[in-house]
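Deliverable D5.2: sample structural annotation.
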Amino acid sequence: MNPALINSAYVIASALFIIGLKGLSHPRTAVRGNMLSAIGMLLAIVVTLGARGIVAWGVIVGGLVLGAAVGTVLAVKIQMTAMPELVALFNGLGGAASVLVAGAALLTAVDLGRPPAQMVIATAASGLIGAVTLSGSLVAFAKLWGLVSGNPVLFTGQQVLNGAVLLAALGIGVGISMQPEMTLLYWALVGVSLLFGILIVIPVGGADMPVVITLLNSYSGLAAAATGFVLSNNMLIIAGSLVGASGLILTQIMCKAMNRSLANVLFAGVGAEVTGGPSADEVYAGKIKATSADEIAMMLDGARRVVFVPGYGMAVAQAQHAVRSLANLLEKNGAEVEFGIHPVAGRMPGHMNVLLAEANVDYSRLKDMDDINPSFERTDVVIVIGANDVVNPVARTDPSSPIAGMPILDVDKAQTVVMIKRSLSPGYAGIPNPLFAADNTLMYFSDGRQAVQDIIAAVKEAA
């Protein structure tokens, strides 16, 4: 294939990636952006495999058909509530691909003679970052899927061990660059890096998984870019750089939304046993006011403005469709209805947006934290479904709290707050929430979906 034609195809694919990435910034253009990016990747794969003569066209077509079949099954079968786990798994597979491709390229280059230094260094980088992405993503997947505890795992000397393992990986990487013909060093690097990936994710609690997922996504892009240098493939370098940069930017945004540094997210172990601060008994004793669907329906009957605040509990209960039905019913009855979305609610960036979009909630109703907070003081009823830490006023009042300084949704300023939760259990920060015991808060103890369905029935009956 003509080199000029190949480069032209790569330029077109790169443009499709950039336009597609821009489209993903808004729900109205997200589907189109995703399709454009997919077309760009298809073009890049076909041109690369065809130009290099790596495999026969029949194998290429077969691979495309098989991959499309697997992707279709996953898209149809995977619940929206399991999207964080799927994203984590995809990140891991991207890291694994980088490890294997870079390793195969190194073996081939060594067989043909001493490979150039640039390729060897890029191979070491690809192996290190790709292996960290693989094992870290698998740990994240296991935590999100419930295969292991979502609580942080902390032990004495943890940071020292992490530093020693990282130095060992870097040392092996230097050894590879000096003696690339010793290919076993590459697989030793992969092994040590796999251990490092496990060690840096196990201290992270479930509440911080959105940040970890974006960081691992960035790592997968950086590993792909490094593999692009291994293969001298401009397309792979561009695509990997785009993923790496966008992942780092999103990671920074998520950390800012929690008012925490990336180091604090990765190493602080937020959600481990909390020894300071008041106990749950001190915060809640004699102050909890339980409510019922009928009582909530009476309040909603006279409400002029209602705000829903979804959290991970909505995702677990798969209550998004019931929430949409209640919102539509309230609007039909004359109330103004909006949704307050916290950036880190759920287990991945945009988790609540994705769930509500699946339920066909109009995007104009979804308001981010900065937009919705000023309106809580004039809100009659706030219905919080399964959220905890993102509405905990301790973030504003207790500088010693694990969530101190984290921007929260100011639901406590509303006239009435209805908290739908199964129990008084704490969020992933592991601290009690005084909002539960506030004078203007009513607790509705129930499964999220069942609770909303009961409220819908009570509103209809009251009408």
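Annotation notes: The radius of gyration is 25 Å. The chain is about 60% helix and 5% strand.
The annotation will be released with the project's public dataset once the embargo ends.
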